[in-house]
Queue: 2 jobs
Job 1
Amino acid sequence: MTALDPTNTPAPSQRSWYKRNEIAVTPWLFLAPAILFFAFYVIWPIYQSIAISFYDWDGLGDATFVGMANYAELMEDSAFEVSLWNNLKWLLLYLLAIPGGLFIALFLNQTVTGIRIYKSLFFFPFVLSQVVVGLVFSWFYLPNEGLLNGVLGLVGLGPVNVLGDPTLATYGIIAAGLWPQTAYCMILYLTGLNAVDPEQIEAGRLDGAKGWRMLWFIIIPQLKPATFIAFVVTIIGALRSFDLISIMTNGGPFGQTRVLSFYMFEKALSEYGFRMGYGAAIAVILFLIMLIFIAYFLWSMWREEKGR
Amino acid sequence: MRFTTKSMLMALAGSTMLAGAAHAELTGDLKIFLDTSNPAPRATMEAMIADFQELHPDLSIETTIIDRDAYKTQIRNFLTADSPDVATWYAANRMTPFVNAGLFEDVSDLWEEPEIAEALASTKGAMTIDGKQWGVAYTYYQWGVYYRKDIYEELGLNEPANFGEMKSNCQAVLDSGRKCYTIGTKFLWTAGGWFDYLNMRTHGFDFHMELAQGKVKWTDDRVKQTFANWRELIDMGAFIDNHQNYSWQESLPFIVNGEAAAILKGNFAVAPLREAGLDDSKLDFYQFPEITPGIALAEDAPTDTFHIPANASNKEAAREFLRYVVSANVQTEINNGSNLGQLPVNAQSAVDDDKFLNEGFAMLSENSPGGVAQFFDRDFPAEMANEAMQGLQEFMVFPDNLDDILNRLDKVQERVYK
């Protein structure tokens, strides 16, 4: 009885490899599809873009290795410089969507009859396709027939050709882009406002806070998550601006409204382009700029997690 | 839109003669890719292909029609990856990337056949690179000035014969409170048409081609002379304001409403202008007038073409299709007013009885001794054309920037033609 029969004990080696490593392996199994797709559709193309940017290639024939020549040319390319500055304008001015959205959200955050209708009306532009927004605004800006010049005419101001004027055109397009983007930020803030703690407001009120002080010290700190998301989507939206430019000015007049993404498309894929290497070099620069923001977002999210 | 049995039989007779008696019946698949996505050209091509099918019942034809603009990028993929047997494209420099990459079949053998060599001689130059022919043309159209006859009559003006008259006409039009020329430069290429004509009229076809081939600098004094002529018109206020906002289609209402008296355009502008209500009593055509006396007149006449991709699988049937497309009767049929409404490339074809087609045909066959250019963005290499057209648009808005623009174009030229 006391003698143990060694053949009876289930040897550990008989448990399958998966059973032994279940805890370690299972998460990776679940992650595998996503990792594969991410690697194949994101990481690999990034690597390819960087690789192509060192070549001179028309997409058809043989690619010739040219080292940093594409980047050297970018440094002297005035069109690239214009695009870069325009990207900066987009980045800064697009951020106006955040305070704009906050203001409208505060304004709409009340209970009156039909508030849902008002909210949906304000949200409406975000539902529209960017192409439609672009078309509507380019009609709005039309030099002779447009509504804008009609209104300006009423108050005695001369006609302005917003989209035809190289100094104004970019601002005109950004204004068009702000319309849907503000609506987006508004929705983010409306949801955020629902989560504001009424007790803190009560407490603040007892301490005599109202108006701007109430907003600045009580409400806005509580909206921090919403602000963070609004910041992220607005920055990304600004760097991705392409549809509006393509629809409203096609990069013109004489290339003064191009941004990096548009310039990249024009150089690499448009009718007169097909300089794949040069386009890829622009893409790499755009990627590096985005990387700054992505790194910042990741860092602040990581910090948030740590803080808990 | 269907071809008559008679024309079909004649075409049959024509094409089999061309092919020669030794030619066996065609079998297998024939894949045809077309960029003729606008309604009228699409129907024309479909009818033509259906007739070709009836001639060759054993051939299984598969036609794919791709949006005209999307085609320009897709062709790069399908020529390398999944090649059709026949594909449409454009003549001259636009063929160069595909010819250099070895993606178009050399069809010089077709051009040695006597019928084609003689009947298509006028487009041979546009189809030739490195002494070989890389496809056949199937249609082309003239460029010129389309003007409001009724406005000219009201002001007592005649079609101008030289630049002086062109300017004095323009001054009269301006004095009547109208603009001389409508143009929409949003998509840039329309300005290329003006440069083509001004440059070819100021210095001639050969100089224009030297510039296109990068043998002349943009800062050359002769080029500056061309711009100086252009500037005279700009300073007069000849062109509509804010043209940088409009596409060419959006620039048409100015001439339709009588706010502008004329437009420099290809014959494709006639159809929309007629639809908008300008009949032949209101719309007329003249050849772009002489600028430097004694320079042979040359014209823009963009040509659309058919090619056989190098990777095609049924090249025999494709060649037969090309022969069929350029045969005299088919050319007469597909280019008539109810189909493409353009000019046939075959010298033995008849031009449809249309005022503008007749004038254009006469102009190109009798009155363009200097030569026939394709168009700015087809004669110049793509990258040069794109940068240059931006410069042309900028010049039309800010003529004072000219030196800056030309210096910039010189730099581009150095890079593009290295």
Job 2
Amino acid sequence: MTQLALQHYLAVGAILFAIGLIGFMTRRNLIVMFLCTELMFQGVAINLIAFGRFWGNLAGQAFVIFVLVIAAAEASLALGLVVLLFRQRNTLDADAWRDLKG
Amino acid sequence: MQDLWQIQYSYLIPLLPLLGACIAGFFGARWLKGQSHWPIWIGVGASAVISISLLFSMLGLWKVAGHEKGASAGHAAAQRSVAAEAASEEPPLAYNKIFFHWITAGDPSGTNSSKFFNADAGFLFDPLTAVMLCVVTGIGFVITVFSAGYMKGEEGYFRFFAYLGLFIFAMTCLVMGNNLVMLYLGWEGVGLCSYLLIGYYYEKPSAREAAKKAFLVNRVGDFNFGLGIMLSFLAFGTITFFSGTPQHTGLLEVAQAPLTAFQQHALRWIPFLLMFGAFGKSAQFPLHVWLPDAMEGPTPVSALIHAATMVTAGVYMIARCGTLFVGNAAAMNTIAAIGCFTALMAGTIALRQFDLKKVFAYSTVSQLGFMFVAVGCLAPVAGVFHLVTHAFFKALLFLSCGVVMHAMAGELDMRKFSGLKRVLPKTRILMLIGCAALAGFPLITSGFYSKDEIVAAAWEKSRFLAALMLFAAFLTAYYSFRLYFRVFEGPEILPSPPENAHGPGHGHGQADGHDAESAHATGHHHNHEPWIMIGPLVVLAIGAIFAGFLNFPERARSLGGFLGQSPSFAQSFNVATRPNVANGRVIPPLPFGQIAAQEELELADKDFATSQHSLHRMLMIVSGLISLLGIYFAYLMHLKDRTAAERLANDFPAVTSALEHKYWIDEIYQNGIVEPLRALGRGFFAMDRIVVDGIVWLISFVPQASGFALKLTTQRGYLQGYAVTMLFGIAVILLVVFL
Amino acid sequence: MTAALLLLILVPAIGAAACALLPKQGAAARTWAFAVSVIDLLLGVCLSAQFDWKTGTELTWFGSSFYIENLQFGLKLGCDSISLWLVLLTVLLTPLAILASFASIKDRQKEYYAWMLALLAAMNGVFVARDLLLFYIFFELTLIPMFFIIGIWGGPERRYAAGKFFLFTFAGSVFTLAGIIYIGLMAPRGFDLNAAVQFVQHNPEMARARFWLLLAFLAGFAVKVPLFPVHTWLPLAHTEAPTAGSVILAGVLLKLGTYGLLKLALPIASPDAIGLFAPYIGTLCVIGVIYGALVAWVQQDIKKLVAYSSVSHLGFCVLGLFALNTIGVQGSVLYMINHGLSTGAMFLVVGMIYERYHTRDINRLSGLARVMPKLAFFFILFTLSSIGLPGTNGFVSEFLTILGAFTSTHLGVSYGAFAALGVILGAIYMLHMAARIIWGPLKTPDHDDSHGQGDAEPATQHGSELPTDIGAREVGILVPLALCVLILGVYPNVILNSIQKPAQAITQAINPPAQAVAEAR
């Protein structure tokens, strides 16, 4: 048990992703939902790093850095949007925004 | 022939009146105002001068041709067939003047399945054209002079003269056109002018409706006429009347070449189609309804367009296209029958009309019926002759009517006035001349001679027809003198003062009860007969008396002989005498103006000739007596004892009612044709909105319904819902890929 | 110097872009748009000066730098006499339509004029495109400006009308696109129009496909024309569109359909297929002629009346095309131009009446001749042209299309005879309208408050005054059209002679000489 095998990393990644997914689907608060998507990102990122180390190349790490940058940019944009949405309806409930219904 | 300067400059004949019309129309409202008649006077006058000098030049040319013919006929004892051949060999008194190609379409090589269509802007000059031109421009000029007096002070004075100029333009195009489409151009052009002039007092709803009716009824005729033109083109490949070339490609020369089966078949239909066009324009039975209503127009218009010139275009057209008609016995019988029926029907209706202009309107319809009987009985010369004399006396009558109306402040109901011989002495004499000519007063009036020729032609065809025509002539004499006796003889009654004329109940709204005219009449009560109005009437009266001598039967150089030089008449005689058409009968050449052939016929068949002469003399006596009888009856009923007519009318209420309602033909058309069509239109419109649009809506319903279904199921706007759907989708894809 | 072909499209396209950049306020946009459209008119005149009218050789221009190798798609422009006449019609009508908008378009001016110029570019593009794909692109491009012109500046039901207009024509032309792509894939030289026509005509293997191609083209163009059962978008679009929109719609856009039929459907489809369909299409045309006329007769809205008259008139036009002989095709092309002139003019006059009376209800208008003699003159003139009075342009084309059907080996006498009924009915509805609104006792316009409450028009402010007659600008709009009406009535050969060769080429391909000989026997 001293050596952490690939599957342990993958398990952590999968758990993180699952927590994020379940959170996204069950919570209504826009910020929480956004945090959940971030969790899912990190789950995938762990996978990528684990595989990168397993294969002994840097592609996985490069990807993760890329993902982190994108996630940061996206977080700034998305949180800004959430603030705007909150100003419109004074609520963070996702169900307040059902304009896309047919 | 082509060297005549009148032919070289013939484009001036229509264009000068048109130019006058443009000047009057565009500059009249602001600058010319009360002088707007000048451009028209000058334009129409100039074209009248050209036309009359053209006629005389052609008469001069005829002298040369006639001389040769007289010489050849002198020592010719040949058969008629030889004579007919000789007649076709000599250069005809006709010339085709082409200015430019008007409509050219199709494949000139003719190798493809498409034919080659060509309509030239060109004129055909022959005796028929020359005579018609003189009638149109001559009487047209006289009437424009009269109009300047009659229409003085009217609002829209310039407009009236612009329309008149346009009318002369169209009418001259009609009689000069060298092909059917040019004829059609003039044909519809005069229809347009008629429309505009009937609707001259456009603020009166009755005038507006009458104008529309005139145009539409004519359109029904024109529809058939147009189809006739197309069928002629389809069968013969041309629409030009007379080519004048050795190839004989014109429609008038169809007799020169053997006909194909298709052409023979087409000739069964073409006359009927063209005939309907003529019925529309010349107000014959099924399509006569517009002419009485057309009296809504100013009176000079009724004289020029609806009596003297335009309405005779149908007769002109049948005479012009004679070769297409005479070969078809059924068509000729139909024309004669319709003409006879119309003459009788209109003559009877005229008996119970009290509006002066309406009486003459129905009289015109009736007289046009006479002309149709003439052309239907293979006597086009008699038809054109009656056309000419009728133009004079009917224009005279209408214009006299205009003088009466002018003096009576727009009142036209003959029950409201009587005994005007003191108020209007000159008009009385002129009207008497006109009525006598219309009635066919024996020997001294033109109407007697022309009507007699028609009766004679009818006699050749059938005794019964001739008897009917004599009865129609009796009616004519009766109603014309009924009007004369009521208006000018008897106790003097003047209509009540003119404010009555403005009242809503006056007449049937038929009279031109317009302010300017009545004001004018009251303002100058001392002179009802200014010379500007009487002068033209005198000219017409002279024509009404002496035009009869134009075709005095015993003269060699008569109107008929001149017309006979026209290819229309000569060639239709050729067609009529072809063995399969004549069918064993002897076709008398004189009604076609074929004097040379007549002389030969008389040489060959003495008994026939003498029997014809005695027959004519006998018919002349009978028709003269009939006319006098009609006048006598009118005297009895309307001068001696005016209550007699009313008593007679009250004895037969059904007949009186039928006559006064004009046999309910208008009502039948309105309820039988117009209203159903309009209902059909409404039905179609409803169908457009419900059925056609409904189908479109059904088609668009499929995407709409599926969209609605999706809206209710998956697309509900819950973010988590979309996420679940996505997850489910990914799961399905994974299952498919890995299992 | 055939670059004029390109400039014809480019000048209004750039003009439209520039127009969108102009300041919002003021009259700059309309002056600019008018100037650009006049320049385009001059370009059209230049082009016709270069054109060799005697031989009728097609002018061509090929932008090789725009060539897309993989698709074999290029900026290939050209024009023969038929295209050139239609281009001239377009560049003549557009400045007049823009001039007519000066008074009626009050809000969002620069957008409006930008769309008008864009529309001009697209319409010119359709007529000069000599590449199938390019043709299609321009064909669809005309929809977008018109969609906005109807949808923004139209009447009360403009949204619905614009949508219906767009969807109808677009739904039809999708099939056309399929057909065009099919040809582009099969033909060795791709989308090149003339080469594609040559290819399908000389390749017997295409025979079956040419049958389906006819259907594909018919689906697109019949809606645009519009032929009888698919015409319902037209009255609505015409009624709701602003005056200039109706003018362009009737004057040019409908001609895109007939032009497409003439230029694509007839040459590309197989003679057998055309022969098979001609009687059916002819029947639809005749139904359209009579149906449109009867429906027009019962309309209350004069603009709708004129719109239904277009349905009737275009029936004649297509009937002439499917007569499949030279007379019919020549008459049909002439009909396209004449209908553009006279119906365009009719919409202009109706627009002028509407500007003064704020109503188009036939029952509320009467006796305009009393107060507006000049307008009445033009109204009657264009009415006469519309009912085909000889001496005006309408007669020649109506006569030739009916004559074409009458003498056609594919249609025949009965088609001509029934279509000629439309001549009577045409007179009925047009004179019905003329009698009701031009003649008769004068009715003063009643200004009830139901309309015109928001816009403080000068006319509504002092409502009791009678409307004024048309002014110099409006006379200036109508006079060119009136002159064309008369000139083409007196000397139609100026068009007929020049289109004789292309028309004959089209009909010869359909009726091969051998067949003609057999029929002649």
